[in-house]
Design brief:
By secondary structure, the protein is α/β, with parallel strands linked by helices. It has a single domain, classed as NAD(P)-binding Rossmann-like Domain (Rossmann fold), CATH 3.40.50. It is built from eight helices and seven strands, in the order βαβαβαβαβαβαααβ. A seven-stranded parallel sheet has the order 3-2-1-4-5-6-7, with helices on both faces. Helix 3 packs parallel to helix 4, helix 4 runs parallel beside helix 5 and helix 6 crosses helix 7. The protein starts with 9 loop residues before the first strand and ends in a 7-residue tail after the last strand.
């Protein structure tokens, strides 16, 4: 397969201060895209923006909380004002939420996770879709989780939000298909890196197990006894957003090293 390029395309990435989101910003930029990206950590974003611009890239950082409807509107408006449209939207922002049994879980703790993990992708799609419809092209990728399909104890908010994201993906795919706009979801297993270590630490506290035991438990879920990598998630995102994936829409793609096979 030849190198995938996005020369001149306008790409919006949420959750870009670290992990998959940050890597996507860098890789889309290297592939020729004009990248608009957001997170709540404005100081980190400005550093990423400065580095990209120093390398001659077209990049715009927007400090925004995708759990807030108005922030999502402001993000898409900033992209359109700077570059004229939105060609690709990657909803990568997400929070893990508290880890506790459902009988201890409070409504506001569930709401916090749903706002970022479900309402955020909905709101960004809501504001980006008209631009894609107008130009009769576009691609949307939502970053989900295997937890939405294989729930784990004490993770009610996260599992609920990620299953809901699959429903959002499929409905949006149906509605936008007549306009040649595609929408897919990637559901990773545990991803090597900073974020999974936070999940491990929280799970250790919630279950009274050592962090090493929790980490081994995550690996043990996979018949390959492996975690996936950020690079692999980015590779799949590139495929889905490119012409190689032009007939893929409404899909929930498992990248779990075998944890989920349906």
């Amino acid at each position: 397969m030849k190198e995938i390029r996005f020369d001149g395309k306008v790409v919006v990435v949420t959750g870009a201060s670290r992990g998959i989101g940050k890597m996507l910003v860098e890789r889309f930029s290297d592939a020729g895209a004009k990248v608009v990206f957001c997170a709540r950590r404005g100081d980190v974003l400005k550093g990423i923006e400065a580095d990209l611009r120093a390398r001659g890239r077209e990049a715009l950082a927007v400090t925004a909380d995708t759990g807030r409807f108005e922030d999502c509107k402001r993000l898409i408006e900033a992209a359109v004002k700077a570059y004229g449209t939105v060609d690709i939207l990657v909803n990568s922002a997400g929070v893990s939420g508290v880890q506790k049994p459902v009988w201890e879980l409070q409504p506001d703790e569930l709401d916090e996770v749903m706002k970022v993990n479900v309402q955020g992708p909905y709101a960004c799609t809501h504001f980006a879709a008209p631009h894609m419809i107008r130009q009769k092209s576009g691609a949307i990728v939502n970053i989900g989780s295997f937890t939405g399909k294989r729930p784990m104890p004490f993770r009610t908010p996260y599992a609920t939000s990620k299953m809901a994201l699959i429903g959002l993906t499929r409905t949006v795919a149906l509605e936008l298909a007549p306009y040649k706009v595609r929408c897919n979801c990637i559901s990773p297993g545990p991803v090597e890196g900073e974020r999974v270590e936070e999940v491990v630490a929280n799970a250790s506290k919630a279950s009274n197990r050592t962090a090493d035991d929790v980490r081994k438990g995550f690996l043990g879920l996979s018949p390959m006894n492996e975690m996936v990598t950020e690079e692999e998630i980015c590779d799949m995102t590139f495929f889905l957003c490119s012409d190689h994936g032009r007939h893929m829409t409404g899909q929930d793609i498992n990248m779990t090293a075998g944890i989920v096979m349906y």
